[in-house]
Amino acid sequence: MASTPIPKLTFYRPACLLPPRSSFTTHSFSSPTLRVSTPRNRTGAVIVCAAKGANNKPLTGVVFEPFEEVKKELDLVPKVPQVSLARQKYTDECEAAVNEQINVEYNVSYVYHAIFAYFDRDNIALKGLAKFFKESSLEERGHAEKLMKYQNKRGGKVKLQSIVMPLSEFDHAEKGDALYAMELTLSLEKLTNAKLLNLHSVAERNHDVQLTEFIEAEYLSEQVEAIKKIAEYVAQLRRVGKGHGVWHFDQMLLHEGEEAVA
């Protein structure tokens, strides 16, 4: 039984594609059905030429450049020292929206800190509410700092804006101070959520998948939970009115979490 002849790839050197043969090294491999020799140039690119067809005429040669796309990306690496090296596919609109959200978080934190100072006064002395608003202020500041770290991670520039001066008095003739402050808190949490959703839509519009994932994972679920919690506090304070019930509500906030620790 006659053995099947093994086809052989033959290489030719089109002048438009290949440098002189002296700049190549040849690597060969074979199989029961194919024998191939592949020259490599000094840059590491593999030069592949097709075998002769049935009519014994060579087909078109192909230059395989496996790192051609990487070469294009290398052009995106900035050479100016003032420009971020890490930035990639991060639009100016997304950068501005993140800076705006940082400002929102700091403004809300500032308001909560002012409410903390109010309830911590000696003639108000609602320590539970003071504790709650101090923790809330620190939490919002933490949100702002997390966004600042993200801005730097993506190669943006943090640009802090002015913070609006909050109120210093929170007593209300009809609602009292505790209910008024908690209703204000609920409105601020809803405003923050609306701003986060706007930031998310900006990221989607710019096809920034990484930013949308960051907002979803770090902020949106937590914000919805916070709104539900504050809404319940508002409902409870509306029930107890301005009298002795406020003190009991304050004591609940003061000792909240102690049972879990014990």
TrEMBL record:
It is found in: Plastid, Chloroplast. It comes from the Eukaryota. Fe cation binds at residues 105, 140, 143, 189, 223. It catalyses: 4 Fe(2+) + O2 + 4 H(+) = 4 Fe(3+) + 2 H2O. Stores iron in a soluble, non-toxic, readily available form. Important for iron homeostasis. Has ferroxidase activity. Iron is taken up in the ferrous form and deposited as ferric hydroxides after oxidation. Stores iron in a soluble, non-toxic, readily available form. Important for iron homeostasis. Iron is taken up in the ferrous form and deposited as ferric hydroxides after oxidation. Oligomer of 24 subunits. There are two types of subunits: L (light) chain and H (heavy) chain. The major chain can be light or heavy, depending on the species and tissue type. The functional molecule forms a roughly spherical shell with a diameter of 12 nm and contains a central cavity into which the insoluble mineral iron core is deposited. PANTHER family: FERRITIN, FERRITIN-2, CHLOROPLASTIC-RELATED. This is Ferritin. The lineage of its organism: Eukaryota, Viridiplantae, Streptophyta, Embryophyta, Tracheophyta.
